[in-house]
Structure formats: C-alpha cells, structure tokens
Amino acid sequence: MKLKKKAIGIISSPRKNGNTAILTNKLLDLLNNNFEIEKIYLKDYDINPCKECYYCIENDECSVNDDMQVIYSKLKEAQVIILSSPIFMGGVNSYMRILMERTWHLRKGQLKGKTGSYVIVGCRDIGSGINEMEGYLSRLKVNKIAGVLGFGFHEGDVLKDEEALKNIQRLSNQIISLNQF
Ligand SMILES: Cc1cc2nc3c(=O)[nH]c(=O)nc-3n(C[C@H](O)[C@H](O)[C@H](O)COP(=O)(O)O)c2cc1C
C-alpha cells in the first residue's frame, strides 16, 4: 500500500471555531482522500518570538528550545503547507507572525518542492495580509498557489461568503492536481 503524503493546515486564530478555522477545515476535508491531514492550532503550542541571536546563520537551525521545534519537523514532513490567519490590525496576526520570523533559517530552499498556500479572513480591511502570505511563501521557495480570502467578523460569518467557499474548492483542486503521483 502506498503511503499518503501529508497536508498540514497551520491555523493562527485564537478562535478554534472561528472563520479561519472553518475555511481551513473545509479545505482539509476536500484534501482528505488524497493526503494524510493534520491540523495545527498555533495557540496550543508554546512558541516565542525570534530573539535575534543569529545562531541560525551558521547552523541552519533555531537555538530557541520551544514548541517551534515540533513545528519545524511538521513543516519538513509535510508535502502541502497551508497557512491560515485572521487579519488583525491590517496584517496576519501575531501567532502567524511569530511562526514566519521563527522560520527564517528555512528560507534557503529546505522546503523547496513542497506546495504552499494560505487562507486569510478579515471583516473589512485586509491591509497587507495577502502580500505578507505571498512574500513569505516566496521566501520559503515552495510551489506557491494563490490562497483564499474570506470575509467575516463573528464566528461562522464566512459560511455566507460564497466566493471564498468557491475558492476553497478551486484551491483543493489545484493542490491535488499539482501533487498527482
Ligand atoms: C485585535 C483584532 C484586530 C482586528 N483587525 C482587523 C483588521 O485590521 N481588518 C479586518 O478586516 N478585520 C480585523 N479584525 C476582525 C477579524 O479579522 C475577524 O473577526 C475575523 O473573522 C477573525 O477570524 P477568526 O474568526 O478566524 O478568528 C480584527 C480582530 C481583532 C480581534
């Protein structure tokens, strides 16, 4: 029996039943037949900001011994990486920002060949959210697919965003066709 490759959804919203999680869950459900799925809520992990020690320049790994070490392994294991963030103050939220900064040492092509995309949800002003996600995935050198933008404020609002729901379907199709094996 052939082992399925892994697809992970990393969700940075503090609301586990919030709009970002709803869209990400829909995407992961659509990928479920083709991939082994894992959902990661960053709020469940003890992760700290980059302390700017520059250990990673020489060593290609991070010196901070917290739960990011677990997330590094998950990123390396996965074939498909989905980053999902709500928009807070015009950009990705702080849990997602910490993850981005703490993966600086993975920018040299260690994740090349993997597929990367994103889900972001705001209620009105998404500010630099798309640029941050696009820029980050480019720096990781993964095969990037345009992500999904959803609109919503209260938990569940995004279920009324038909465009976002259609885009989740489109993204799942693209991920599957890019990873046919
Ligand atoms: C601290 C904070 C800042 C926010 N800033 C913005 C913002 O700048 N632009 C926006 O469109 N929505 C903003 N929102 C609204 C959230 O993006 C929105 O409620 C979204 O649905 C949250 O996603 P979630 O349900 O997955 O947590 C903010 C919410 C919070 C709590």
Describe the structure.
The model has no long low-confidence stretch (mean pLDDT 97). It contains six helices and seven strands, in the order βαβααββαβαββα. Strands 1, 2, 3, 4, 5, 6 and 7 form a seven-stranded mixed sheet that branches. It is globular. It has one domain: 3-Layer(aba) Sandwich (Rossmann fold), CATH 3.40.50.360. 36% of the residues lie in helices and 20% in strands. Bound molecules: flavin mononucleotide. Flavin mononucleotide is lined by residues 13, 15, 18-21, 86-90, 121-127, 152-153, 155.
Give me a quick take on this structure.
The chain has 181 residues and is an alpha/beta fold. Helices cover 36% and strands 20% of the residues.
Note the topology:
Blueprint lengths: L5 E6 L7 H13 L4 E6 L13 H5 L8 H10 L2 E9 L2 E2 L1 H9 L12 E8 L6 H12 L2 E2 L3 E4 L10 H17 L3
Parallel strand pairs: 1-2, 1-3, 3-5, 5-6, 5-7
Antiparallel strand pairs: 3-4
Helix pairs in contact: 1-6
Bound molecules: flavin mononucleotide.
The site of flavin mononucleotide has 21 residues, from helix 1, strand 3 and strand 5.
